[in-house]
């Protein structure tokens, strides 16, 4: 009963968030200054040669002359049917562009997510497992160092060393699995740092709770306490962070794909923003918000599995 | 006979507290180094001519692609421009954008948080729903959406990043306002007939502002990173301007031959972010311990 209600409210919230993200980007893109139609025409060659009448005609063809509310209604109706409009630059349907761009980004993103979770968990656990204070201090400060690195630089350094100097990996472009590794590593670093920070801190607090003393009193060692008891209790904040991680990976893709000159969502975003290609930008944001909402929904649904207290009450219990 | 008894709750004496906050950093070498780094960069931004006599935009064609040396600390680029001079002059652009972004986030967050926390009911519901939605879009994408609408330039980048961060600041401010609002002295003020325009700035703001200022300090490093990332993507000032991110993007074409073009400006960004993060954490910890 509780579980059904919990699932229903969380799902409704995810739907609301995606709708709101659509509306937010629509409003932001239409109400702020800048005339995309004029810009598009000038980009296609010689804005000066076009008469105001031709500009008005182009605007009417694209539907930009209708009242905003009508534009919004038709855009929303289209989006619900999977039609996100057409790119102002190329005239291609946005949904097609995105469908083509998702697989390469998903390849890099999945690998980056796995790397970030693995590295982050290892680091977070290691920082709590080690008995040497010096090593612990080092492991604890590593994540905050890692988040200070600009990811464009990490990518460039990897290219310089591993591709140009040692010829281990291809440097640019889309070339099979080998081409995925460096971008994925670059993308994973800030995420791994985030996971390590949160899991490390959460483990640290968990291990100071009374039940940990009880476990210690039964004669369990550090390792047993950590893996048998602590990790599971520390998993909830870490699960929340995994959701944030997906968001940061979506954003990170823009920089990383530009650095490595790879095709993908990040790349089309980067060029669409430069060209003020409104439908493409909006399409990307909506798809990203959808992905983000789905991941967070899955994590919300995972909480009751991780924490029996939520199963019983249908609410998140803050200890 | 009628001596005034001291009230049991003593008001915090500002100078003592401030002295403690600012003297504590100097005790640890890492923090001293951070202060030095940020001081130097601030100097670059305010009086770049004290740090370099070379021009950031006109190069000496004979000096193309010189690696770092005593004459050219950070080397020179394809036009013979001194990279150190460009980094020094770029500090003003990058820092101005950072400060502007934080001011926007802080200002927006303070006002929205005060309104949401104090008035409650539908204003609160409306504002917090908007905050929730804003935070459900990955921040970089939201900034990029705003850049699309505003156009390119360092100022536009700053506005985009600042607006994106308003949500997080609003959330913290609202939580604080809710806490302070429940304090007896605020209730007393309301009972005395004080109106909201007097209560908000006089009784609530001073007590609620602490955590938001701490967030602003913690955000500084992140915003420097975001500004340089957007600069790297090509949304900063047009080419000759030496914004840090765009310096790295320019150097990218010569990655195989001239490592210093990308490495040294990136290193500058990293060092500044590290210093800012370190210092803000110390200030925050000190502020919390008082």
Notes on the structure:
The complex is a heterodimer of chains A (319) and B (290). Chain A has 319 residues and is mainly α. Chain A has 14 helices and no strands. The longest helix of chain A is centred in the middle third of the chain and has 36 residues, at 94-129. The model of chain A has no long low-confidence stretch (mean pLDDT 79). Chain B is mainly α and 290 residues long. Helices cover 71% and strands 0% of the residues of chain B. In chain B, helix 2 packs across helix 4 (83-119), helix 9 packs antiparallel against helix 11 and helix 10 runs antiparallel to helix 11. Chain B starts with 13 loop residues before the first helix and ends with a helix. Classes of the chains: A mainly alpha (319), B mainly alpha (290).
What tags apply to this protein structure?
heterodimer, A: 319 residues, mainly alpha, MetI-like fold, 14 helices, 77% helix, flat, B: 290 residues, 11 helices, 71% helix, disordered N terminus
Gist of the model:
The complex is a heterodimer of chains A (319) and B (290). In chain A, 77% of the residues lie in helices and 0% in strands.
In round numbers, the mean pLDDT of chain B is 81
State the helicity of chain A in percent bands. Answer: over 70%
* Computed structural class of chain B: mainly alpha
Give the assembly state of these chains: heterodimer
Sheet-strand content of chain A, in percent, reads under 5%
Poorly predicted ranges of chain B (pLDDT <50, ≥5 residues)?
A: 1-13
Layout: helices, strands, pairs:
The complex is a heterodimer of chains A (319) and B (290).
Chain A: H1 2-31, H2 36-43, H3 52-62, H4 68-80, H5 94-129, H6 133-146, H7 151-165, H8 178-206, H9 210-217, H10 222-233, H11 235-259, H12 265-274, H13 278-306, H14 308-313
Helix pairs in contact in A: 1-13, 5-6, 5-8, 5-11, 5-12, 5-13, 6-8, 7-8, 7-11, 8-11, 11-12, 11-13, 12-13
Chain B: H1 14-23, H2 29-46, H3 48-51, H4 83-119, H5 121-135, H6 139-150, H7 154-181, H8 184-191, H9 196-232, H10 244-251, H11 260-289
């Amino acid at each position: 009963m509780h579980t059904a209600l919990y699932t229903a409210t969380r799902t409704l919230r995810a739907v609301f968030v995606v709708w709101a993200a659509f509306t937010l980007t629509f409003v932001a893109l239409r109400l702020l200054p800048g005339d995309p139609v004029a810009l598009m025409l000038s980009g296609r060659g010689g804005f000066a040669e076009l008469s105001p009448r031709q500009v008005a005609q182009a605007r009417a063809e694209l539907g930009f002359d209708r009242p905003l509310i009508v534009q919004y209604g038709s855009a929303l109706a289209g989006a619900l049917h999977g039609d996100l409009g057409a790119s102002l630059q190329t005239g291609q349907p946005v949904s097609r562009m995105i469908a083509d761009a998702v697989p390469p980004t998903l390849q890099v993103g999945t690998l980056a997510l796995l790397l970030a979770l693995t590295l982050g968990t290892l680091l977070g656990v290691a920082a709590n497992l080690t008995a040497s204070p010096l090593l612990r201090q080092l492991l604890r400060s590593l994540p905050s160092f890692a988040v200070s690195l600009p990811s464009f630089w990490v990518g460039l350094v990897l290219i310089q060393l591993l591709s140009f100097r040692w010829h281990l990996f291809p440097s640019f472009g889309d070339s099979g699995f080998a081409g995925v590794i460096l971008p994925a590593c670059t993308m994973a670093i800030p995420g791994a740092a985030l996971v390590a920070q949160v899991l490390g801190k959460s483990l640290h607090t968990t291990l100071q709770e009374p039940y940990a003393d009880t476990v210690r009193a039964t004669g369990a060692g550090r390792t047993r306490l950590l893996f048998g008891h602590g990790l599971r209790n520390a998993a909830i904040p870490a699960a929340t962070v995994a959701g944030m991680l997906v968001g940061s990976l979506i954003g990170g893709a823009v920089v990383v794909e530009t650095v490595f000159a790879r095709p993908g969502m990040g790349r089309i975003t980067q060029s669409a923003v430069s060209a003020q290609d409104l439908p493409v930008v909006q399409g990307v944001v909506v798809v990203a918000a959808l992905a983000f909402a789905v991941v967070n929904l899955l994590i919300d649904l995972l909480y009751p599995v991780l924490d029996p207290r939520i199963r019983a009450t249908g609410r998140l219990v803050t200890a | 006979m009628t001596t005034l008894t001291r009230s049991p709750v003593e008001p915090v004496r500002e100078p003592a507290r401030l002295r403690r906050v600012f003297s504590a950093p100097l005790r640890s070498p890492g923090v001293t180094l951070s202060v030095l780094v940020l001081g130097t960069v601030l100097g670059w931004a305010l009086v770049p001519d004290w740090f370099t006599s070379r021009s950031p935009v006109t190069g000496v064609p004979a000096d193309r692609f010189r690696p770092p040396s005593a004459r050219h600390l950070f080397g020179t680029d394809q036009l013979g421009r001194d990279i150190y001079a460009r980094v020094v002059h770029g500090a003003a652009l990058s820092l101005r954008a950072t400060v502007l972004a934080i001011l926007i986030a802080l200002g927006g967050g303070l006002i929205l948080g005060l309104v949401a926390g104090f008035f409650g009911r539908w204003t609160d519901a409306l504002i917090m729903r908007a905050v929730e939605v804003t935070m459900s879009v990955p921040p970089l994408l939201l900034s990029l959406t705003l850049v699309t609408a505003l156009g390119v330039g360092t100022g536009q980048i700053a506005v985009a990043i600042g607006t994106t961060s308003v949500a997080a600041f609003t959330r913290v401010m609202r939580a604080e306002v809710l806490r302070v609002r429940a304090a007896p002295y605020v209730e007393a003020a309301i009972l005395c007939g004080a109106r909201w325009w007097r209560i908000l700035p006089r009784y609530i703001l001073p007590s609620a502002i602490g955590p938001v200022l701490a967030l602003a300090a913690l955000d500084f490093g992140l915003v420097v990173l975001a500004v340089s990332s957007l600069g790297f993507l090509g949304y900063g000032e047009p080419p000759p301007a030496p914004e840090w991110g765009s310096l790295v993007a320019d150097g990218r074409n010569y990655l195989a031959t001239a490592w210093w073009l990308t490495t040294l400006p990136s290193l500058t960004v990293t060092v500044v972010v590290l210093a800012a993060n370190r210092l803000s954490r110390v200030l925050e910890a000190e502020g919390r311990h008082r």
